[in-house]
Records
---
Amino acid sequence: MPLLINQSVVTDDKWVRVDADTLAQHPDAAIIVPFELFAAEQDSLLAGDRPLAVQINGDQDFELVLANLERLSLVVIEFPVFTDGRGFSFARILRRKGFSGEIRATGDVSHDRLEYMTRCGFDAFEIQDERFTGETCSVFGEITVHYQGSADDERPIFRR
Amino acid sequence: MYQYNEQDQNLVNQRVEQYRDQTRRFLAGEIPDDEFRGLRLMNGLYIQRFAPMLRVAVPYGLMNSVQVRKLAHIARTYDKNYAHFTTRTNLQFNWPKLEEVPDILAELAEVQMHAIQTSGNCLRNTTTDHFAGILKDEIEDSRPWCEIIRQWTTLHPEFAYLPRKFKIAVTGSSEDRAASQVHDIGLHLVKNDAGEVGFEVLVGGGLGRTPMIGKVICDFLPKHDLLTYLEAILRVYNLNGRRDNKYKARIKILVDALGIDKFRELVDAEWAEIRGGEMHLTDAEIARIKGFFAPHPYAADAVNGVAALESKLAEDSDFAAWYERNTREHKVDGYRAVVVSLKPYLKAPGDITDVQLDVVADLADKYNFGEIRSTHDQNLVLAHVQAGDLFAVWQVLAENNLARPNIGTLTDMIVCPGFDFCSLANAHTLNVADQINQKFDDIDYLHDIGDIKLNMSGCINACAHHHVAHIGILGVDRKGEDFYQITLGGSSREDASLGKVIGKAVPQAEVADTLEKVLQVYIEQREEEERFIDTVRRIGLTPFKERVYAPVN
């Protein structure tokens, strides 16, 4: 599954996805923890100092993620279907709170949403193999005129 | 009107190429059907019963003659020589080819038009009063605010995948010709005790399966806060609106479930985070946009035409009937606003041919500062015609079947395309509109009935706003046959109300006869000068029910 970070394909992803069964197998690795596991084990997970990430979707408690931003270096936002737009607001709020780590989109993520996602604060995208083509990276810059302020530039067009 | 600068033009040009590429990738099999559906809808392209349908945006119903001629050209070149105006003041082409849509969009971009966000679960075209800017009692012209909202909504990166579509309407006077109370957000320009202008904000109105009148969320919003407040409402909706059931996904359901006070709390908490931020409007930006809507250079001697007008009115009763129903006052003496009727006898309401589009464009150039407006009730307006020119304008309109003197009468119906075109429809509407036209063609009768609003939808989605018509007709399917449910007492105006069903649906053949019974009750019961809606409100539904459902001897 190709991973784009800052609009380029990255081949070595340092992050390891764990679940309740595999958590113990990666004692020192940088781990992406699913939200349910994070909620259940937050005391022990937050106590360590290894790189920590949480994966969340629109049905889960975003407030719990926001309350622990200082300990997170990556937030993965899942789009179960491309029509679920809650993740756009999640990313926007994360950047507004000052989160400067990586915000990664996963799930039903493809070409025609990457530009909007970038504007909302995402800087990394996991794209399904069958939806990735040589043209995918050329999507950035299809539309260069932005009326609204957003996470990429909080100033609307009339303040630039 | 607003004129694109280089950036505005770049945006629509880039959007054309983006959509051209999306179409190419779809046809090459690189985009799945359901995903392309989302992409094409956000560009106004539906796949209908027989063909695609392209909905072109007409922001707040305002066009110039160059744009209208371009629409005529598109109807001629890419379609079957006609198009259809909608209740969002947009224009629909019924027979474009999917592969040619990028070319149509490129043609539109040449005249500062597009189809951006005319469908899909995103921020739609903002609508307003079609008499904005010419009203004597107006607090402010609503159109600059619509343009500010248009720019904010256009390609908004965060709110392109909302739970459901989202519609905003703005009014600038005490009258409401924009159905603002049945919009997701209704904005009313108001003045506070200190004499400052701001907005009363309504939220959670809507029609469809669950019609609701909007609720006041803010009594007075200072105007510089407009965009931050809209953003706060949209973010709360995007995060909390239901996504499990499309029929419960509109903001009205969320507002109703939480209660307006709880919803307001959520919005205020979000607003507190962003209120003082970069989206706060500046005086310079408000002044820049308002500059595009400065009054036209009205002729100081326009009142001199009044004498000629009066003599024509005295000698030509057809002209006088048209003048009475299809024109209205203008804030500048010597000018009138003309409503171009798109409700001719036995033609689909809201339809217009390429030839008629060109005729209207020519009239606009000659008599109306080149401006044309489309209305919520599917007509057009030439808003600034000199008194002395009215007869000439009427003659040209009449020659082109655009001067039926029926504005505001029973045959000035809002009607959706129904089963003849729409893949959602349960029942036909156009043939029933014909039936009503045939039954009630007598002008004297129509003028005697006076102001009345009749709307007809071909399904529960209520595109023709039947719930808020004085008389609403809803087509339903009963075991393969078209039946029609009738509601009375609705209004989309400042006195907004939802109509109530009078009884069981009637068969298609009996719709006009049923209306006649309803109107008989009105004629018998009305007090002097009393409008139909006021009689219904005074006497209630019972007398109408008794007449309509009286046992046949």
---
Amino acid sequence: MSGIEALADHKRRRIEELIARTADAGGVSLVRDAGRRLLRNPTAIVGGTIIVLFLIVAIFAPLVAPHDPVQRFPELIKDLTVDTIPGATAGHPLGSDPLGRDFASRMIFGARQTLFVGVLATLIGLLLGVLLGAVAGAVGGWIDVLIMRFTDVMLALPSLLLAITLVALASRSTQWTVIIAVAVVNVPIFARLLRGSMLAQRGSDHVLAARALGVKPRNIVLRHMLPNSLTAVIVQATLTFAVAILDAAALSFLGLGDPDINRAEWGLMLGVDGVRYFEVRPELAYFPALAIIVVALGFTLLGEAIREALDPKNRR
Amino acid sequence: MPLLDVRDLSVVFQRKGAEPVRAADGVSFTVEPGQTVGLVGESGCGKSVTSLAIMGLLPRRGNRVTGEVLFDDTDLLTLRPSDLRDRRGRDIGMIFQDPLSSLNPVIPLGVQVAEVLERHRGRSRQAALREARGLLDAVGIPDPARRLKEFPHQLSGGMRQRALIAIALACKPRLLIADEPTTALDVTIQAQILTLLKELVDDSGTALVMITHDLGVVAGLCDTVNVMYAGKVVERAGRHQLFGEPRHPYTEGLLQSVPRLDVDRGGRLHQIRGSVTDNIPWSAGCAFAPRCDRVIDDCIGDTVPLEPTFRGGALRCTNPVPTEVPA
């Protein structure tokens, strides 16, 4: 008998208890660690709350909204004159718009449209950008030069101007032209970002080590370079949501979006009724504008917080 | 027949608007099957460049590699890239200096060990992972089943280097090139890793090229040692020979620069004058001449040739350190 075997029972139990308590509980993965830091960050909580509320409203719009957003209530605009657009009445908490449609319902369904456009535009932009950036960073040479000069040209133009040009190129504007235009505007940003981190990865030790093991070039790019380069792009994507929402709203505001007047879209509501009736019913402008600002703010706050949480400098 | 026969290997880095740099300059050495050969020298002498050139891992642009690298009588330098990739990791393994940055940070350890087995042995992911467990066990990683699922940052430095060794030896290569495998580790771990390496190469009959600046590593491990200076081998000798009777003044200087416990503490540590950048080109004589204590007129003039010594080594010096036994 020697060591802790020789100790009295309760002493030995105490030692085992202490060992168990300090035992390596397994490392903490990057994602879990980042998640924990996000939950402690007030910025993330504010941004996250806004986005969650926005998502709930968007997803459950038919349940939340008191009415169908395109249904017209003739009794509300029976004796309509310019300065008598109905305000709040029973059953219509925000009143109606000049066509007699329930304004609150239109705001709620607008969240759906905004989410749809924002997510799709960001995803398409992300996909194309990652593709271009990965090719440029992995292949290098003249292909890299070609892609990067192309992105330079696109970045030289103001993004909204570029989006307007793209929409104008389409013969007939639908919501898809808006989505594509906003997506394309964001492609060079993603491409550039990814190419930069791919280049850094190309010179890294673990890529050299993988090459020393005879790993095929395709697998080196897909398994070793790309996954290590994506962090910056993912963060950029959350920030791009905000920009995409703003850009899409701006295009609708300028009358370049889907001309369908039944579509509830915040930018369109702001641009048509909000501007036209601003002096008599400023709420028609205030609410859509406020909604756009708050949602964009939510995504920006969350994006910033994610960036901070994923930053290895903040790891302990 | 030697397993690896490096003949007159030169690596020249081209630079825009400047003289090209001869990072490795006519390096020749051989490795017999199962032998451990050291490549020693200070930073910038061309050790790592030589090893990367052997593996064909230097960037394609901006440099010129000449000479021959015969592995099993095949010249690796003229091999098609895809054939060379088939050999890397299967016939020749490599271990790098920094174990953390040499592992992919976003992939669990097990997958990284499995990758090489999938690549060269055609194993399925499942089979490879099972095999990986045994490999980690063999390099002394405790609880390998759990470690397989962990990420590199969750392992300690020593464990990471053990994992790298497991990966490098997964396909039982006949040659292992270790580029300063212990530099990033603390001293106690260094000893463990070296012991492990020695055991593994002895057991499997793998030949080992040990690249290091640490003479202690050489003393413990190598059969033959090549001392490099400014891109050239300046002295080659058996281990006991080299430590017992260094002939090149540079080798002697290196040995004297190692701190010792058994000499008086008041004395200054020996150092070699100047730095590795204070060279003259080899074409104008001996590159080490400006820093050498034994420099004579003959050191300046023509390239000093590497000449065989009567003890089976080789020496590149016009005024070598005299030996006890007259040559």
